[in-house]
Write a structure and sequence with these properties.
Elements (H helix, E strand, L loop, with lengths): L1 H16 L16 E2 L14 E2 L9 E11 L3 E2 L2 E2 L1 E3 L2 E3 L3 E7 L2 E5 L11 E3 L5 E3 L6 E7 L10 E8 L9 E6 L2 E10 L1
Parallel strand pairs: 1-2
Antiparallel strand pairs: 3-10, 3-11, 3-15, 4-5, 6-7, 8-9, 8-12, 12-13, 14-15
């Protein structure tokens, strides 16, 4: 009888000890990793083994849509910019976009500016393809009448587009000039 009890206990122990747990987690032995596999992409994943189509690339160009002048000096070193028939006048402002020493875009003047902001959209949008090059926007007071006279430089702001990646408005300030560039990044 004792042998039967021992045999039953032994078999019961073996049955329960060898029972497989259905709810036990299984280890993931997969070595596949989804991600961007293009090393030129900004989100390149060197551990990815499956290209999931998620690659993102930096912009290749910048479209300058408008230039807004928020503030600028209203005097020329303490003197008025213009003196007209009626006495002192406010400046007649235009912009010149430059790359290096070359002019690449400009506007005609907005006359007798006395309030801000000043919005320039003439000859814009302009597409900038070299994002690592420095560009300068110069503001001038138009003092030419019928081609006679000289324009006076009010001031300028410079920028390098790739320093402002992903912004849709680029703020620039320099020597009393405060301007905002409205831009769109092009892939």
């Amino acid at each position: 009888m004792m042998k039967k009890i021992l045999l039953i206990l032994t078999l019961t122990t073996l049955i329960f000890a060898c029972k497989k747990e259905d709810n036990a987690p299984t280890a993931n032995t997969s070595t596949e990793v989804e991600g961007c596999m293009d090393p030129l992409a900004t989100n390149y994943n060197p551990e990815a083994t499956i290209d999931d189509g998620s690659c993102e690339y930096p912009p290749s160009a910048l479209k300058l849509s408008s230039i807004t002048i928020n503030a600028m000096p209203m005097t020329n070193n303490g003197s008025n910019w213009d003196v007209g028939i009626l006495g002192s006048e406010n400046p007649d402002v235009f912009y010149v976009l430059k790359q290096g020493n070359g002019d690449i875009s400009s506007s005609s003047s907005q006359d007798n500016i006395s309030t801000f902001p000043i919005l320039f959209t003439e000859n814009l949008p302009y597409t900038i393809n070299n994002l690592s090059q420095e560009y300068t926007i110069e503001l001038y007071d138009n003092d030419q009448i019928a081609g006679v006279g000289e324009n006076e430089l009010i001031g300028s702001c410079s920028f390098t587009p790739n320093e402002f990646m992903e912004l849709t408005q680029i703020p620039l300030t320099s020597s009393g000039i405060d301007m905002t560039l409205d831009v769109q990044w092009i892939q």
